[in-house]
Amino acid sequence: QVQLVESGGGLVQAGGSLRLSCAASGRTFSNYAMGWFRQAPGKERNFVAAITRSGGTRYYADSVKGRFTISRDNVKNTVYLQMDSLKPEDTAVYYCAASKLLRVGPSRNEYDYWGQGTQVTVSS
């Protein structure tokens, strides 16, 4: 079992930045690929970014490419999402997730464990 706890959400103006963190515990963190998803009110939970176990490969949704950066620290057991040039349409609850697979992508079914989420609100 892996426990995931997100933090770093909040209210920011359009054009601003936030850095989300997701702290993992319970199993060897470096054995899991990690991802970030987001869910806006009344919408499905959508893929944002993913990173492989070693951090060597990263994947992004087209909507955030060039603005968001996913990274991980396997010593601190933490995955990060640096969000720059934020837009009102980035407003959502952001979730981190862990996968036992070597490579992960945008499908929620590829992930085994989920955090409780952190709210990000971008005002115009």
Descriptive terms for the model:
7-stranded mixed β-sheet; single chain; mainly beta; 124 residues; 50% strand
Describe the structure.
With 124 residues, this protein is mainly β. The protein is built from no helices and 11 strands. Strands 2, 4, 5, 6, 9, 10 and 11 form a 7-stranded mixed sheet that branches. A 4-stranded antiparallel sheet has the order 1-3-8-7, with no helix packed on it. It is globular and about 40 Å long. The N and C termini lie far apart (40 Å). The model has no long low-confidence stretch (mean pLDDT 96).
Number of distinct beta strands:
11
Return residue spans where pLDDT drops below 50 for at least 5 consecutive residues. Answer: none
Mean pLDDT level: 96
Alpha plus pi helix count: 0
Helix content: under 10%
| Overall 3D shape | globular
Output the radius of gyration: 13 Å
Determine the N-to-C terminus distance: 40 Å
Structure at a glance:
The protein is mainly beta and 124 residues long.
SSE inventory with pairings:
Blueprint: E1 3-7, E2 10-13, E3 18-25, E4 33-39, E5 45-51, E6 58-60, E7 68-73, E8 78-83, E9 92-99, E10 113-114, E11 118-123
Parallel strand pairs: 2-11
Antiparallel strand pairs: 1-3, 3-8, 4-5, 4-9, 5-6, 7-8, 9-10, 9-11
